[in-house]
Amino acid sequence: MAKLKDKRREKISVATEIDRLEERRARCQDNLERAEFRSRKEKLSDKDRQELEDEMTIINERVQKLDKELQTLRGENRKNMLLSVALLVISALFYYIFIYSDEDV
Fold first, then answer.
1. CA-CA-CA-CA torsion for 39, 43, 44, 46, nearest 10 degrees?
2. What is the pLDDT of residues 22-48, one digit of tens each?
3. What is the number of alpha carbons within 13 Å of residue 105 lying toward its C-beta?
4. Which of 38, 53, 65, 66 is the most buried (most CB within 10 A)?
5. Other CB atoms within 10 Å distance of the CB of residue 22
6. pTM of structure
7. Kindly report the CA angle at 33 between 28 and 26, in degrees rounded to 5?
8. Which of 34, 23, 22, 41 is nearest to 59 (CA)?
9. Is 40 left (phi over 0), alpha (psi -120 to 50) or beta?
10. CA dihedral 13, 19, 25, 26 (to 10 degrees)
11. What is the pLDDT of residues 41-64, one digit of tens each?
12. Torsions phi, psi of 38, nearest 5?
């Protein structure tokens, strides 16, 4: 099952993966805000309050994990962009050398 999931992820672009993780992070953030609002506004028993705090802790851990994954993917995205720019510059340089050097001869 894990291999199948990894193979599916290999086919997804870095930008698509970043978008997917940002959406998940936004949902977690919304859930966290709702839980915080609920803890402030509602009168909860000690047990319910503890459960809510546990839930908020879990959500915070998820958000931190997603932030780390996003940071890694954004770094990978920067590398891909730099590679693309480098290839474009090399292509333009070869184009200039071969096209304009033939005109000088």
1. 100
2. 999 999 999 999 988 888 888 888 888
3. 6
4. 66
5. 13
6. 0.71
7. 30
8. 34
9. alpha
10. -170
11. 888 888 888 888 999 999 999 999
12. -65, -40
SS (H, E, C) the chain: CHHHHHHHHHCCCHHHHHHHHHHHHHHHHHHHHHHHHHHHHCCCCHHHHHHHHHHHHHHHHHHHHHHHHHHHHHHHHHHHHHHHHHHHHHHHHHHHHHHHHHHHC
Q: How far apart are CA 87 and CA 3, in angstroms?
A: 32
Q: Which two tokens stand for residue 61?
A: 């851990």
Structure tokens, 21: 């993780």
Burial per residue of 47-76, b for 16 or more beta-carbon CB atoms within 10 angstroms, e otherwise = eeeeebeeebeebeebbeebeeebeebeee
